[in-house]
TrEMBL record:
<keyword id="KW-0249">Electron transport</keyword>
<keyword id="KW-1133">Transmembrane helix</keyword>
<keyword id="KW-0679">Respiratory chain</keyword>
<dbReference type="GO" id="GO:0045271">
    <property type="term" value="C:respiratory chain complex I"/>
</dbReference>
<dbReference type="Pfam" id="PF15879">
    <property type="entry name" value="MWFE"/>
</dbReference>
<comment type="similarity">
    <text>Belongs to the complex I NDUFA1 subunit family.</text>
</comment>
<keyword id="KW-0812">Transmembrane</keyword>
<protein>
    <recommendedName>
        <fullName>NADH dehydrogenase [ubiquinone] 1 alpha subcomplex subunit 1</fullName>
    </recommendedName>
</protein>
<comment type="function">
    <text>Accessory subunit of the mitochondrial membrane respiratory chain NADH dehydrogenase (Complex I), that is believed not to be involved in catalysis. Complex I functions in the transfer of electrons from NADH to the respiratory chain. The immediate electron acceptor for the enzyme is believed to be ubiquinone.</text>
</comment>
<feature type="transmembrane region" description="Helical">
    <location>
        <begin position="6"/>
        <end position="26"/>
    </location>
</feature>
<keyword id="KW-0999">Mitochondrion inner membrane</keyword>
<keyword id="KW-0472">Membrane</keyword>
<dbReference type="InterPro" id="IPR017384">
    <property type="entry name" value="NADH_Ub_cplx-1_asu_su-1"/>
</dbReference>
<keyword id="KW-0813">Transport</keyword>
<keyword id="KW-0496">Mitochondrion</keyword>
<dbReference type="GO" id="GO:0005743">
    <property type="term" value="C:mitochondrial inner membrane"/>
</dbReference>
């Protein structure tokens, strides 16, 4: 019957979803944040590097107050 496929479908769906949910815990453990930033485009990589350089934490929201003032003589 058609319902004989259900146990196999549940097993396959479960096994395919394990890495997705495991990455949440692994990222939290490894980098201290459960979410990664998208690095597909060059602009995103540049913004990640800028945020890391300015605040040493690329996941913290940065505004103009995060940029240090230049000292003028």
């Amino acid at each position: 019957m058609w319902f004989e496929i259900l146990p196999g479908a549940v097993i396959i769906t479960t096994l395919l979803s394990v890495p997705i949910y495991a990455m949440y815990g692994l990222d939290k453990l490894m980098i201290g944040n459960a979410f990664r930033r998208n690095m597909d485009e060059r602009f995103s990589r540049v913004m990640y590097q800028r945020d890391f350089r300015l605040t040493d934490n690329p996941y913290k929201m940065n505004g103009l107050d995060a940029i240090p003032d230049e000292k003028t003589n």
